[in-house]
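Could you join me in thinking about how sequence relates to backbone shape in a protein? We need material for that, and I hope you will provide a protein of your own picking. Label the sequence line and the structure token line clearly, so we can match residues to local backbone shapes. Would you write everything just below, so we can both look at the same thing?
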Amino acid sequence: MATSDTSFLEYLQLQDGPELVTKSELIAAVRKQGLRLTARQLTFYATEGLVPHSVRVGSRAGVYPRIVVDLMTWILRARDIGVSIEALRELEPVWMFLIRARTSEVLDLNELEYVARQHVKLTEAAINVPRLVIDTLGQLPARKVRIVDKNNEGRCSTDSSTTIGFAIARRPVDEEGNVADAKWFVATRITLALPMNYSTDPTTVVLGLKPNEKLPPDPTIRMAEASQEEVSS
């Protein structure tokens, strides 16, 4: 591989292996997630520094590390809800940290807090950290991780009693531009152990569809079908 693109290598190191995808394969994989991505959009996000540029590897031109599919999926989901490019730039180091945590199957909350406080400055970005944790680590048993809290006590992410809290502070500024002491702004708590029967769970509020519109298959059904396909093959 002849390239000086250090960001390409950085993303390649996030993976379990050296799998690469072409531009068309990347776009197809992202579209399979129900998201719209064009070659022009991909170039835009590479120009903005959110996605590594493709490189030539042997006779293959224009390839990306496979992990860029996950990266592009997260970016597009965030953009769909209005997250700005500036906020995404601050969040991307947190995304990379969470991918490493997913690979190691250990999420240390002290380390997560350090990385987030080091890179995330905008309130908009801070508010999106909990969503980023959910989007990256997922809420499926296949993505089980050990969550180590700030007292160094470990809990399993698939345990329904395991939650992660987030509290955001910011410094108010008066009309004269004076910055006051920090105050708590907003707080929330999330769990990665959600029921997978979205269509029948009585505590789950379904959004994104019209009333009485047909619901998609539950994740548990998709997982069972995928397992059956693996057995058949």
Q: What stands out?
A: The mean pLDDT is 88. The two ends are 33 Å apart (CA to CA). The chain has nine helices and eight strands. The CA atoms of residues 198 and 204 lie 6 Å apart.
